[in-house]
Design goal:
Strand content: 15-25%
Shape: globular
Radius of gyration: 20 Å
Largest sheet: 5 strands, antiparallel
Distance between the termini: 52 Å
Oligomer: single chain
Structural class: alpha+beta
Order of helices and strands: HEEEHEEHHEEEEHHHHH
Number of helices: 9
């Protein structure tokens, strides 16, 4: 475990707020200031290994590769709606051990989970959210690496000075590289926001942007109605997941374009969603 007092002492060039604002399996996140500007300081929980300790097939090697891919993803995507690296990456001696770290934008207006607080967003805010997330999915997919986020959910969607920002690229799939994890939910991701193909992958399953589109659809329904569109336990949950009824959105005062978009995003088969993220945006903005 990281000693938070030591972390603060190890970054004298920054003003670090303790306790941490978040933590996961591999990282601890702090709110930090650099010349008066806030950013999120992410420090790897694990000690940075000596070369002899990081064998090619070791869990540490996989963790380091995921950390590297997260940073690489943030660097190759050029989009105001996708988090970027603001500081580092580098290693830092913290007490007796060395740790990887980097900085990214601080979500000064919280996450979508915070903003919703169990309730609904105004339909106009949902439309703006849809445009931002579809733009982010398009920007990631259109990189040379063909990136798939795989974990789009309210806690990974933040607000920075009024802008929607997709964060936490630690589960990103690089479709031009060997996967670090299975495409199924045995790998990274969150079951409540997963696409049908993540629940029931075939041997030839290849995740792409359409899985991200399905996750965006879940987030939009939840933001519009205040409730997750699917419920129940397996196999009932999976049955509901593959049979979304767009007419359930009729009572909500949003545009027909938004309702039609959501209905397409939540189609069971990826081929029935959209051929490109740009076509999804066009549906929302132009109605066709």
């Amino acid at each position: 475990m990281l000693n938070h007092t030591l972390v603060e002492a190890s970054f004298p060039e920054f003003e670090i707020t303790s306790p941490p604002i978040g933590s996961g399996g591999d990282k601890v996140v702090y709110r930090a200031k650099d010349n008066g500007s806030d950013f999120a300081l992410k420090v790897m929980s694990w000690d940075f290994p000596d070369e002899d300790d990081a064998g090619e097939m070791s869990p540490m090697a996989t963790t380091l590769e995921r950390f590297d891919r997260e940073i690489s993803a943030m660097r190759v995507v050029s989009c105001p709606h996708v988090a970027t690296v603001t500081h580092g990456p580098d290693t830092r001696q913290i007490g007796a051990t060395k740790h990887l770290w980097f900085g990214e934008p601080y979500l000064n207006q919280g996450t979508l989970h915070d903003v919703r607080n169990g309730g609904q967003l105004h339909p106009d805010a949902v439309t703006n959210l849809a445009k931002a997330l579809l733009t982010a999915v398009a920007a990631m997919w259109n990189t040379e690496e063909g990136l798939v986020h795989r974990d789009i959910k309210p806690r990974n969607i933040g607000y920075v000075n009024g802008e929607v920002v997709l964060t936490d690229l630690g589960a990103v799939l690089f479709t031009d590289m060997s996967p670090l994890t299975s495409p199924s939910l045995a790998g990274p991701g969150t079951a409540e926001y997963a696409s049908p193909e993540q629940f029931a992958p075939r041997r030839d399953t290849v995740l792409d942007f359409r899985s991200d589109l399905f996750q965006v659809g879940i987030v939009l329904v939840e933001s519009l109605t205040g409730s997750h569109p699917f419920s129940g336990r397996a196999p009932d949950y999976f049955t509901a997941l593959t049979s979304f009824d767009a007419s359930t959105l009729d009572p909500y005062p949003c545009s027909d374009e938004l309702k039609t978009l959501i209905g397409r995003l939540l189609k069971e088969r990826p081929a029935e969603r959209f051929r490109t993220p740009e076509l999804a945006l066009r549906m929302l903005e132009e109605g066709f």
